Input
Amino acid sequence: MGFLEYAPAPESRSILQLKDSYGLFINGDFVEGRGGAFDTISPADESRIAAISIGSDEDIDSAVAAARHAHTKVWSKMSGRDRGKYLFRIARLVQERARELAVAESLDNGKPIRESRDVDVPLVAAWFFYYAGWADKLDYAGLGANPRSLGVAGQVIPWNFPLLMLAWKVAPALAAGNTVVLKPAETTSLTALIFAEILQQADLPAGVVNIVTGAGATGASLVRHDDVNKVAFTGSTGVGREIARAVAGTGKSLTLELGGKAANIVFDDAPIDQAVEGIVNGIFFNQGHVCCAGSRLLIQESIHDEVIDRLKTRLSTLRLGDPLDKNTDIGAINSAEQLARIQELSRIGEAEGAERWTAECEIPENGFWFAPTIFTGVETSHRIAREEVFGPVLSVLTFRTPDEAVAKANNTPYGLSAGIWSDKGSRILAVADRLRAGVVWANTFNRFDPSSPFGGYKESGYGREGGAQGLTAYLKGASA
Amino acid sequence: MSARLTVPKTYKLAIGGAFPRSESGRTYEVRSPKGEFLANAAKASRKDARDAVVAARAAQPKWAGATAYNRGQVLYRVAEVLEGRRAQFVDEIVAQQGVSAAAAGAQVDAAIDLWIWYAGWCDKYAQVAGNLNPVAGAYFNISTPEPTGVVAIVAPQSDSLLGLVSAIAPALVSGNTVVAIASEPFPLSAISFAEVLATSDVPGGVVNVLTGAPAEMAPWLADHSDVNAIDLAGAGDIDWVDLQVRAAETLKRVIEPGEILASPQRIAAFTEIKTVWHPKSMA
Output
């Protein structure tokens, strides 16, 4: 065994008590979907995990009706204090079942257990804990006294952080007094369904949260439903546009958290070792399946070669493989479809003239995998510099002056996040001011917290999740 | 001796600090409710709308980059100059809308007072809407509102000055620049107001005013990829749902038609919250 080889250290699956098939969670009970079913698989080995129901239009009708009834009769009448107590209960139950949720997430999504255990699930609990405390303090959210809930929220979430995105959507909605119909991503429904069991354990009143699984058609049916008051979506910019069109003229509130192509800017005075760790965390965290990933690395010309050399050395130590192995750094790509997109854009990157470097690592025989890859010599017009790859692929560009860095960073229709690496405080603040992005990480990257608003400028969507801003997205002022 | 012959004003567009005619050469007649001829207002075209967006974009970084204190003073100056021209605005409102001089005066006074209210928000809004966030870790984490960029506005159509002011002022507070389509039947006060802005230290291009048919111009603005937000306050009588559908292509922030309430929420509608993280360390 070499210096950097490790014996396998798989997390046990025995903590899971999975059912062979899962229904939809409507009005407090699991019911069979009327649109058929599909198997959810582990992207690490393509093995079947369980059958998942497909929600039909009628199922969406039932779920929205249950949510409406729960809103009118129960949840909007309940005191903020009691709503908060339910959310605190949920936060605690998530903590109690944290290991089970982490294993299920890594199994179903393909992300390393180290991330699901140390990032995703703890943040889920934190999100519910944070918003629980808001439920009886809505007067201080910024909309004046006695703000009101919007009603029924239709929420559609992506597959990259399945349970965390659920928490980002459900926690503020419930704290504000709304009820919810949530549509998880097709490939990652499992933890949402375990979460439904947690809601039963919490004795949350029936219909306050309804979870309807399925594919795009189920989500489309939800966001178009006439009796939904608020639509919240996280996902691709393309689908976000469709939803914005569908919602036009309906009076529904809408928040969209869409794609990104974040610039991660490294100045020549940056702490290089920390910057290299930040670059790795920025683009290779969660296999790059992160809308705010630092996918465009902008390096000041004078330190380009040094940073790239160190980056390659660091990437050569990353371990790719079994997501349930506690030593794994890079897990599986979530689906065959996503893998194909990453492969296609990488081919285009080579064809357009960028230089490709891929870390040497053994690729497992089954499942969907893509080794960490860097493109150097990328130009701003290249597709890998403009389009969201949503995979472990880093495009490297250079700049000479801070003005050029800012101009290149902002040269994108997206505006979700950005990174700055420099030891000069005044420059960090000036550059942060000029970057057109909703989240700017300076000398760090990919940090998340329930008290910290997250969301984009421009075509990365609108509205914020997290903080008081994330709460007011589910409220209207008393005079409105 | 006969009465003095008056010198009527040519009402043009306001684009980039200049007052051009429509490049299309088109005008339309503005008449009083009794049918008396008042003016030939410019009927702006697609090209004029696009020129206005270019001017607004060019002016945006400097306006947003001015200190909040400075923006507040410049906007306050607008109220001072407007107050000095009160009589002119009263006359124009009486002529266009056919209301009494008292009612017109009340509209001008309300516009001035509202403008001052918003001017005062410039250096306070970020304090009210921003936060230092207590994240779980050794990080400095701060959220602050920033302007969304270029805002297109279909001004309320039912009056000539107050509606326009209600729509423009909240967008300017945080540092946005504006392309406003004036009331189609009552466009004259909007152009006179642009003259007030031009003599109040408001940089050219910060507020651009188009007169003409909202139904013709608004779709170009809703489509335009360099417009960040569109306020449809005065679009209730045109096909505003189509405008909202068009705006979805570039994910513009859209405000649906309706009454404009003077509120910090109106400022918020044209802002983006930016959150900046930095580690804390003694090292």
In short: The longest helix of chain B spans residues 101-121. The interface with chain A takes residues 128-129, 131, 133-137, 139, 141, 143, 148, 225, 228, 240-241, 244-245, 247-251, 253-254, 256, 261, 263, 265, 272-279 of chain B (CB under 8 Å).
